[in-house]
Specification:
The protein is built from 5 helices and 7 strands. It is α/β, with parallel strands linked by helices. The chain has one domain: Maf protein. It has a 7-stranded mixed beta sheet. The structure holds inosine 5'-triphosphate. The site of inosine 5'-triphosphate (ITT) has 20 residues, from β3.
């Protein structure tokens, strides 16, 4: 079976992908299983740019078909922040809790109806030969006044889902995967991979040398 590298150092994402990618007709491997500690600088202004540059960099580094995601929280009252800077929002080395506490602090005094926000995720699939495709997912919600719940990671404790009446961090893994931005982007990326396989686009030692559908630029960025 062909190998597919899931290129993330984020343990929360790895946990989610282990479930989301069950049954995929690929031999799924993770960066830590390959002993890869290198990280790729995220200099893009959109989730799509960063997802593509991560996927291409690890595909070139390893010679493997590679899946990467760039994701984050977009808060309307903060002009879209933290957005593509979600991982770096409270500086290098900060914890998830320090990041969401900083966000709550920035949201001090902002009334409920103005606390709308969404998680976004763009998945990029790249070949070592330099071809890439993207899919995306969105999950709408509100920034709560207080954290709640112990599941998930990142900003999940302060992200409230009005339709469920729960914070994201209150949802067990499978339930989060069914409604999340990452679940949506991953579902689309799985279909895309199956289509590329069926069309014979991923055969050969370097699938990137074969003619493929052009790069799909994401219309929605950070
Ligand atoms: P990799 O680049 O190695 O995948 P990262 O944590 O740097 O790991 P991103 O650049 O995509 O990943 O940053 C995403 C940040 O957005 C992440 O660190 C969280 O703070 C937040 N985030 C993304 N998805 C999330 C989710 O499902 N729930 C809560 N927070 C999330």
């Amino acid at each position: 079976m062909r190998k597919l590298l899931i290129a993330t150092h984020n343990r929360g994402k790895v946990r989610e992908y282990r479930r989301l990618l069950e049954g995929l007709p690929f031999d799924v491997v993770y960066l830590d299983e390959l002993g890869i500690n290198d990280s790729v600088e995220e200099t893009g202004e959109t989730f799509a740019e960063n997802a593509i540059s991560k996927a291409l960099a690890y595909a070139r580094m390893t010679g493997l078909l590679t899946w990467a995601d760039d994701s984050g929280l977009v808060v309307d009252a903060l002009g879209g922040a933290p957005g593509v800077r979600s991982a770096r929002y409270a500086g290098p080395g900060a914890t998830d809790e320090e990041r969401y506490r900083k966000l709550l602090h920035e949201m001090d005094g902002i009334p409920w109806e103005k606390r709308t926000a969404r998680f976004r995720s763009v998945v990029a699939i790249a070949t070592p030969g330099g071809h890439a495709w993207t899919t995306e997912g969105v999950c709408e919600g509100m920034i709560a006044f207080e954290p709640k719940g112990n599941y998930g990671f990142g900003y999940d404790p302060i992200f409230y889902l009005p339709e469920l009446g729960k914070h994201m961090a209150e949802l067990p893994p499978d339930k989060k995967n069914r409604i999340s931005h990452r679940g949506e982007a991953a579902g689309k990326a799985k279909k895309l991979l199956e289509r590329l396989l069926a069309e014979g686009m991923l055969t050969g030692s370097d699938s990137g040398t074969r003619p493929m559908t052009p790069l799909q630029k994401s219309p929605t960025g950070g």
